[in-house]
Amino acid sequence: MHDLKQLRENPAAFDAAMARRGVEPMAAELLSLDETRRLLVTELQKSQARRNEASRAIGAAKAQGDSDSDGAAQLMAEVAGLKTRMTELEAETQAVSSELDIRLAGLPNRLHDDVPDGADESDNVIISEHGKRPEFAFEPREHDAIGETIGLDFESAAKISGARFAVMRGQVARLHRALGQFMLDIQVSEHGFVEIAPPLLVRDEAVFGTGQLPKFADDLFQTTDGRWLIPTAEVSLTNLVRGEIIDTGSLPLRFAALTPCFRSEAGSAGRDTKGLIRQHQFDKVEMVAITAPEDAAAEHERMTRCAETVLERLGLAWRRVLLCAGDTGATSAKTFDLEVWLPGQQRYREISSISHCTDYQARRMNARFRPEGEKATRFVHTLNGSGLAVGRSLVAVLENYQQADGSVRIPEALRAYMGGLERIGD
Question: Is residue 113 part of a domain?
């Protein structure tokens, strides 16, 4: 959501900000709705005041025995008319307010000034590169080919559930579980995130609060009772502060969860149709931070480093990328992607996105804090990021640690989680 006060003060700047997102100018239209709503509210308040005044006059007339006078009759007729008009005004105000809210809710967040312009991922900016790409004395294979011999089974999953699902058996299932536990332990034990076991089913207001509704309903799965399967634990974790006024001494709040995630992948037909890259169901360690606005930029950098730590420990090569305007998600004002090197594909692929959402989600959730010594409240800033996606991390480990004989070495950081195993698939 957007600050109407800011829109009123500088509509040209608002249109310019939306233009970077490819949105046609609409400040004038929004301000017209806002003005209509304010005029209706003013008329409603005046009608309420006049009705109260007339009602008091009627009461005084009755007290003096003049209730049958022409003046009293006129006042009663006026009150009846005001009551009817107030009902009409309330309905008109609700309709205009609803229209304004719907239009505002469908707009993306304003971008930070340092987000580069651009249409799509080809215009993203590489900030830094880290780690060393492995060298092979053989032609490296993609993860789905490697996984066939160690328990990664897409055929059984297709028989049970259809496309974009996987069954994992034996050692590869254990490796997948080890990755999730390893990553959650780092974020909780080393980086101070509070571990949360959140609901996987949420109500409309939760997915509205984080920005998936109303615009991205097609990307979600909905149950028959109207709840939604979470596309990411960001939804559950961020909504922990919905409707709250947080004491400033409690900030920042940092939450982490390892959960299944569910996405319909609407619009991705033909993209990554094989393997684990783009699944309807996958596991992810999600990080969420709730901060004061002045601390949010530093928190964004901190969270990005928290995610990068996992890649460092796994001995993988990756790069940090600043997303351009056209590739930045609707709720985010600025996003860093971490892309891991996949030797089987001979390319970098996204493994984490870390986003600063400013007060966009907080306004939708009415999540505020009260600065120390102040009576007025302010909206918090929210941030979220993967620390990391477990399935894509499994892809990276399989491809980067594959051996010529078809086995896969276990990164040293994971061996304690694998009962001391040094390789699988021997």
Answer: no
